[in-house]
Amino acid sequence: MSTDPLRVTAYAVLSALGADRAQNLAALAAGRTGLGPPPFELPFVTAVGAVDAALPELPPALAPWSTRLARMTAQLIAQLDEPLRRARARWRPERIAVLLGTSTAGADSTERAYQTFVATGAFPDRYDFLRQHTFGAVLHVVSELTGAKGPAWMVSTACTSSGKPFASALRLMQAGLIDAAIVGGVDTLCQMTLHGFEALQALDRAPCRPFHKDRLGISIGEGGALALIERHGDARVLIEAVGETSDAYHVSAPHPEGRGALAAMQQALQQAGLRPEHVDHVNAHGTGTRLNDTAEAKAIGTVFENQIPVVSTKCYTGHTLGAAAAIEFAFAASAIEEGWIPPALGAEALDPEILLQVPTSVVRGTFRRVLSNSFAFGGNNVSLLVGAP
Amino acid sequence: MTAAGTVAITGLGLWVPGFPTTAAWAAGTADAEASKPIGTALDRVNRRRASPLDRALADTVAAAMQQAGVDVTTVPVVIGSSIGEAATMIGLLDEMWRHHTPMSPADFTMSVHNAASGLISISNKNRGMTTSLAADHDTPAAALLEGIGLVLTQHAPVVVACGDEPAPPTLVQHAPPWSMLTAAVVLAPFAEATPHLARLRVTLDEPATLPLDRFEPMLRNNPQIGLLGVVDAVLRRTAGVLPLDNGSGRGYRAVVAPGPAP
Predict the structure, then answer these.
(1) Which of A357, A362, A381, B222 has its CA 20 to 30 A from that of B77?
(2) Nearest C-alpha of chain B: how many angstroms from A148?
(3) pLDDT by residue (tens digit) across B43-95?
(4) CA angle B126-A244-A185, nearest 5°?
(5) Which residues of A touch B124 (CB under 8 A)?
(6) Do A171 and B112 touch (CB under 8 A)?
């Protein structure tokens, strides 16, 4: 059964590659990674994708909510200023939803405040867990900055967090409960996450190399992307379907055959009423860990054989965790709009077990549909099918 | 949004200190022994990993699924929690800043907000959709709206569960404290002729007729009190409009009416 697609009338992206869509695309086209040394001291070596763009201050009334996460979100909203103005004129505020995803929420604020607490016995005066850490804190900021007063929630399913809100928006739109939505996700670098992935022995010491034969793990990044979705209006791209499945296998390891990933991709195609040959490119989850890339490659190979180019853009941005699916939606949408996909960095010597087309130079062509994969702890899988209008 | 479509409630579950089941809650007699959730619904390996919140949510979801008779290997599960695994996060921060010890990989893995939904999915071998969401005091309304969206578009049952542990007092120093609670409902397409415990819709417009002051403050302060209110109203076969938050949210309400007498 196919459903009406979501119409994406505008989108914005922020990552280690740059402050907006143009800067991100310029870096992708040039094959220039955003990965580099961490902006803080760590007791181990790793590369990260840190955002160095200037972030706006929040208005004075929102100062108590001001965090790096909230300011990154405000930067994305600023990119959507004009489309949001049009949407507010077109739709009642209570019919505009805010459906976002994050993995860490305000953990970077809390870890700094907690470090002060451990050292001095007191939290910094301005620290407020309820306004700076909770998942709802950013929802409040987005609602205030955009005027959207419809249903609002933050999905937090680790690395699929910002893919699932697209599915929520599809359902709410189809059920007639909303007319528009601000959908996407944001996540910031935090030391706790880096220490955690180091404990799992999942960090590469060098910038990550998804699908490379010697890949050693992930590089963590930060950033976000937002999409404005409207019932009517000039669509730049469509969200044709979202596959959502579970591995039901292990809390932190993917199923070795990519069972849940395969099911998510097949579900997305089935929802859209399409066959594999209708898809022109896969933006892979491709974290750079041995287990993930092998399992995902098996799943992609089962669906698409070796027929279409597959790239993981995490070699540019790092793994932005709860923001990854939204950022990679933006790259998938750009591939459709611009007619090219970026080269996979560090994949020159492909793992012989990875039987996929992984291009190492820019591929130009017509990309009518792109499938974007995201997989997470808990065995949570999302496949987003993005199409041309 | 004004009012979401009507759905049926076909299963209930809850865990409240002293009241580990809906039967205990309906009987109104607290069991002092039931102060910690057991996590019976989780397999042995995952029970060991699980936080008290994960255990309570797993048992609450299992009870609701059993009453509704849904297929545990396919039914979508929506989990709502305002602060999730904040207590686990404090442990990680202590490892990092206080003890300067390597972080426990197991604790890190279980610090994610979707720990409970992952464990429930693994224990039930459920390869379907599951999600975890948060919206502070509007979490029950958000979880119900996500569930209603699923029911209305997929025309099949969905489990919606919400829960929060007490907020770590170190981090939340100026808010009223609360005790743990979890609550769950199974939502299904509504049809008058199909057996159901109650029908439900979510609204922002109608004044509340069933206040939450029948609950003691330590429960009422929990951001998930709204879903416990729904479970309680259905158990008491009460009709009315219930607040889905304790006054700290945006004012979403649940309109509940009992189904045919059993």
Answers:
(1) B222
(2) 11
(3) 999 999 999 999 999 999 999 999 999 999 999 999 999 999 999 999 999 99
(4) 125
(5) 248
(6) no
Q: How would you classify the pairing of strands B253-258 and B240-243? A: antiparallel
CA of B44 to nearest chain A CA: how many angstroms apart?
13
ipTM of the complex: 0.97
Contacts of B93 in chain A (CB under 8 A): 110-111, 114, 192
In DSSP terms, which residues pair with A48 in a beta bridge? A36, A220
Give the largest CA-CA distance in chain A. 61
Cα first-last separation, chain B: 34
CA A24 to chain centroid, in Å, comes to: 14
**Distance of alpha carbon A131 from alpha carbon A138, whole angstroms:** 8
Instruction: State the first-to-last Cα distance of chain A, in angstroms, to the nearest integer.
Output: 19
The pair of structure tokens assigned to B178 is 């609360």
Q: Are strands A281-283 and A369-376 parallel, antiparallel or unpaired?
A: parallel
Enclosing H/E stretch for B25: helix B22-27
Phi-psi region of A289 (alpha: psi -120 to 50; beta: other; left: phi over 0): beta
Contact B131/A152, CB-based, under 8 Å? no
Q: How far apart are CA B11 and CA B67, in angstroms?
A: 5
* Contact list, A200 vs chain B (CB under 8 Å): 105, 108-109
pLDDT in tens, A194-237: 999 999 999 999 999 999 999 999 999 999 999 999 999 999 99
Q: Pull the structure tokens for residue A259.
A: 């069972």
Amino acid at A349: A
The amino acid present at A47, given as its one-letter code, is A
Token duo for residue B137: 């005091």
Which residues of A are known to be catalytic? Answer: 159, 285, 319
> Concatenated DSSP letters for A107-155?
HHHHHHHHHHHHHHSS--TT--HHHHTSHHHHHHHHHHHH---S-EEEE
Closest-CA distance, B36 to chain A, in angstroms, reads: 23
**CATH number corresponding to A6-387:** 3.40.47.10
| A344, two tokens | 């996979």
Q: How does pLDDT run across B118-145, given as a tens digit for each residue?
A: 999 999 999 999 999 999 999 999 999 9
B13-37 burial string, b = 16+ CB within 10 Å, else e?
Answer: bbbbbebbbbebbeeeeeeeebeeb
Q: Which domains, and CATH codes, for chain B?
A: 7-193 (3.40.47.10)
Question: 10 Å Cβ neighbour count for A190?
Answer: 25
Q: Which helix (H) or strand (E) holds A220?
A: strand A220-221
